[in-house]
Amino acid sequence: MSEDGTNGRVRPGHTGTGPGAITPDGCAVDLYRRLGPGTEPEVIGSAVPAGATLLELGSGAGRVTAPLAERGFAVTAVDESAEMLEAVGERAPGVETVLSSIEDLDLSRRFDAVVLGSFLVHTADVETRRALLATCRRHVKDDGRVLIQREGADWHVDLPRERHDPAGYTVRIMSAEPVEEGVNSVHAEYVFPDARWTQTFLSRPLTHEALAGHLEAAGLAFESYLTEDGTWLAARPR
Q1: What is the mean pLDDT of residues 134-155?
Q2: 89, 83, 135: which is closest to 110 by C-alpha?
Q3: Fewer CB within 10 A of the end CB, N or C, for the chain?
Q4: Cis link prior to 160 (omega < 30° from 0)?
Q5: pLDDT at 147 over 70
Q6: Which residues have CB under 8 Å from 183's CB, separation 6+?
Q7: How far apart are CA 37 and CA 9, in angstroms?
Q8: Could you count the other beta carbons within 10 Å of the beta carbon of residue 143?
């Protein structure tokens, strides 16, 4: 257990600033409590049967967990931060929560769908990506789906750029600087009327072909993109 109350590993190259607790990978708990669900619940909900069992890997503070539970899905939320999972419990009482790193997770049961959101598939470390996808394959039913959120093709270029959320805050991607071959250090800012957070993290851009190859190595097969911008995809067990 780390000093901030999590069992998470410190992620080299990942830092965060702002009010409240910061997790080992640079995520600010109070920031994630404020972020809205976006379109993710609709994307996920339309890709799986009604009432499906969902394993959400890296749930954070439950911004997507709660809307999915409200839609009648049986969600199990996994995160390596105890404080993030406390927020999940506040947003979605009754949802099963599991304190664990994704890489080490083994629940000895399988789900209709496994969700790997938050662009986690873009981790800079090849072994970590292999472990993330192995966890997905280990927990999905043979006739189930793995739903993965990926970066857009041009997300590391034409920076800085910003997006104003209808909820009243601004997200700015300030820079994406190369730090090693194929890996960028991305710096983001989240500005609210009364607070500001930053997060710096490492990200490895992936072509469609590269990602499909990683899926295949994990025993998964690319099935289809779920969004027009290609930021969500579905894979099937092979």
Answers
A1: 96
A2: 135
A3: N
A4: yes
A5: yes
A6: 124, 202, 203, 204
A7: 26
A8: 8
β-pair partners for 177? 185
Strand-pairing partners, residue 196, are: 191
Q: For 69-120, what is the HEC assignment?
A: HHCCCEEEEEECCHHHHHHHHHHCCCCEEEECCCCCCCCCCCEEEEEECCCH
Q: What is the pLDDT of residues 81-97, one digit of tens each?
A: 999 999 999 999 999 99
In sign, the C-alpha dihedral spanning 168, 63, 12, 203 is: negative
**Residue 104 in tokens:** 């080490």
93-133 pLDDT tens trace? 999 999 999 999 999 999 999 999 999 999 999 999 999 99
Token duo for residue 235: 């894979």
